[in-house]
Known about the structure:
Elements: E1 15-24, E2 27-37, E3 42-46, H1 53-61, E4 68-73, E5 76-77, E6 88-91, H2 103-113, H3 118-131, H4 147-159, E7 165-169, H5 177-194, E8 197-202, H6 205-211, E9 214-219, E10 222-228, H7 229-234, H8 239-244, E11 250-252, E12 259-262, E13 268-283, E14 287-294, E15 297-304, H9 305-310, E16 315-320, E17 326-329
Parallel strand pairs: 3-8, 3-9, 6-7, 7-8
Antiparallel strand pairs: 1-2, 1-4, 4-5, 9-10, 11-12, 12-17, 13-14, 13-16, 14-15
Helix pairs in contact: 2-3, 2-4, 3-4
Amino acid sequence: MTDRAIPGSSPPLALQTRDLGRQYGPVIAAEGVNLSVAPGETLALLGPSGSGKSTVLRLIAGLERPDAGQVMVSGREVTSLPPEARHLGLVFQDYALFPHLNVLGNVAYGPRRRGAARIQAEQQAREALQLVGLEALERRRTSELSGGQQQRVALARALAPGPPLLLLDEPLSNLDEQLRARLREDLRSLFGRLGTAVVIVTHDQREALALADRVALMRAGRVVQLGAAAEVFAAPVSAWAAEFLGQPNVFALPGQPGRAVMVPEQAVRLGEGPRWPVISRQRSERGQTLKVAHPLGDLTLHLSAREAAAFSGPELALDLDDAGLRELPDDRQQGGGQGTGPAGLTPL
Ligand SMILES: Nc1ncnc2c1ncn2[C@@H]1O[C@H](COP(=O)(O)OP(=O)(O)OP(=O)(O)O)[C@@H](O)[C@H]1O
């Protein structure tokens, strides 16, 4: 998949990868990965477990060497450089903080390593701690922090040297749902203020939609869709992509092998047309989740409390708005990206 062209006169892209590939024995972890991230832009690498997201991030970081392709950071080719020579901020899942250093010491570590004098490094560290709202805790030992606070220290540590590109691998994965939601908000506003380019790995669709300007959807080592976050979610390229992005109603088209149809809920008109049996009703946060036996397949519908009260019988009348349906290639049987072992990792 080709990313957009680089205009000649604009500032260099914060990141560009060209045909990046990495294989582990028979497993193709990344293949033909072309990404670009403009300064200040956030790109999410989204995909199921085993689809190659972390591999791509490690290749960008220099923690792994690619078998093929190139990595450019701020217009400079860095493919053969070690991580510390790439001037990147890294926050990985196991964000090990240094236990023998306090919060300030942890965050000042990066600038010190880059040659800053102690006073200057601590100044940069304090600015980074302020960005993540932890300036009051600079003297704390890291073992005396909550999980969310440790996560913020890790982020401040990555930000302190002022890297033009920040790489985050599932940065919210070890936190409970409430904290995740709060940090998601914080990160979004932080990215907006910083102007740093960000690549964030996530398998969580909501996180990608909340944080990223653009999304690269990965399956079996390949980028299968790349675009503005809202567009990717609204217009998935295939039945597999639609289901992974959370569309419950994707059905094989009868008599048309390899073709499927996606029925977005906006295309369902309740209370008109033929009546279909309701198979199940479940209470949800918003109202009710219904399953309706429709000739296309079992339709899952989310009704508000008011709609649920209005349509409470054993049957539901509904009509589909043809213009709102999307016909898609049905690639769901091709396997890959579910982390189910080599058989599930054949590239598309
Ligand atoms: N060091 C390694 N040795 C062998 N195989 C590896 C190695 N690292 C990754 N793989 C394999 O490469 C594939 C892609 O892994 P990767 O960790 O990049 O996926 P991911 O999308 O980040 O998954 P997750 O969301 O579970 O972290 C997987 O099949 C994985 O088992």
